[in-house]
Write a structure and sequence with these properties.
Elements (H helix, E strand, L loop, with lengths): L3 H13 L3 H14 L4 H13 L3 H13 L4 H6 L4 H4 L2 H7 L1
Length: about 90
């Protein structure tokens, strides 16, 4: 319950099970505990993208990059494939 990476992972699992409310709960707790941890921010972006909240997903991607997250992780994530096609993302990484 006090591991932000595990909580962010649970957020991912629950959104892909169709449990948006639980996903949001885990994500909010993870972000409040570790607002600048790259892996938490990446998982937050994945959850938000899966929820159909592209703007919020892009906000988390921007925070991930600012927190020195590795671009390769974004580029290799199957869950972020559609987001990578978004012109805002393309502009962000140039």
């Amino acid at each position: 319950p006090n591991n932000s990476v595990v909580l962010a992972s649970l957020s991912n699992y629950h959104i892909f099970l169709g449990q948006k409310e639980k996903s949001e709960q885990y994500l909010n707790k993870a972000i409040s505990m570790s607002p600048n941890t790259p892996i938490v921010l990446l998982k937050a972006a994945i959850s938000k993208e899966a929820m159909g909240e592209r703007d919020k997903a892009l906000d988390y991607i921007k925070k991930y990059i600012l927190a020195n997250g590795q671009l390769i992780d974004i580029l290799q994530s199957k869950r972020l494939a559609k987001l990578r096609e978004d012109q805002r993302f393309i502009s962000m990484i140039k």
